[in-house]
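re: ur question from earlier - yeah i can do the single chain one, its not a big deal. heres the input i used so u can compare w yours
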Amino acid sequence: LCCWCCCCCCRRCRRRRRCLCIVVPSTQTLLSTRSGAWVVGNHVFNYAVDLYACRLFLLIPWRIGTRIFEVMMKLLNGNPYTHGLNPTMRALQAQPSVSGSLFFHLRRNNVVVKPNVKRISGNTVVFTDDTSAEVDTIVYCTGYKIDLPFLDDDVRTVLLDDESNDVHLYKNVFCPPVGPSLAFIGFVQPASGGIVNMSETQARWFAQVALGSVSLPSTPVMEQDIAAEKEYARERYFKSTRHTIQRDPITYNDEVAGFFGARPQLWRHPLLAYRLIAGSCGSAQWRLQGPGKWSGAPKAVRSIPVTSLMAATFWLIVLLLVYLFYSIYSLLF
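and the output i got, formated as tokens:
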């Protein structure tokens, strides 16, 4: 059980560049973390946690949204600081770690949180708080570094900053000095959910550019956009080399799909408007219209449930708007 818990945790956090799982012989797992973590369960109020990512929630300024998210996680799992997780960032400044069993094991001391590793000597690990432990296995979960060794040096130096792990790409796909002949598919890290639908949208955009159906903006415009997105990322996300390509899937897909006419428009899909606002809808929502339109997309969108919390929030807002308009009408007439 101890080793299983460790492996489960590691698979979720191995891209996070801040965790180190240390297995102590037979009885206990130590979880060493440099910057702490917010942890959310696989399911919240009987719905998969990914289903809460929707346009309705994303309309909220992230500083307010992160406070709401933090309150929810504290109500569900308790204060992360009491468990020693000690996150040094706000909840939505980094990807929350997803685990349905971590708090269970933390409360029973099957897993013990430790600060960063100070040094390793043989089987002894010394932490920055000067505590130590004898361990038999160490699992590194320190993330990945972007590397493009197959590119010519003149292209690579323009595209990638090795020190900061930063890529110079317009919408995470095109490098302005290189132009539309080369696209980088999958050079994006989702803030929630998976990367597949983001890569699909990127590939569809590149296909339309290659076909000549759409064109890229001028180089100065692309450069200005890259600078603005980097500035936003510095303000929005926790300072780390892993956040240089982080984007929210729904917001990102909407923007990129809009370049080639595949962004779902509410007025064209009135029967799906409620789900498109309050639900996550899945990747089929970007197949409702535009090149590659799929006849089965509406059915696929309807198959994705809307969480009770988002449904209640949506209808509450509708009722408030109706009441507001009725009050104004009564005053005027």
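The chain is about 40% helix and 15% strand. not sure if urs matches, ping me
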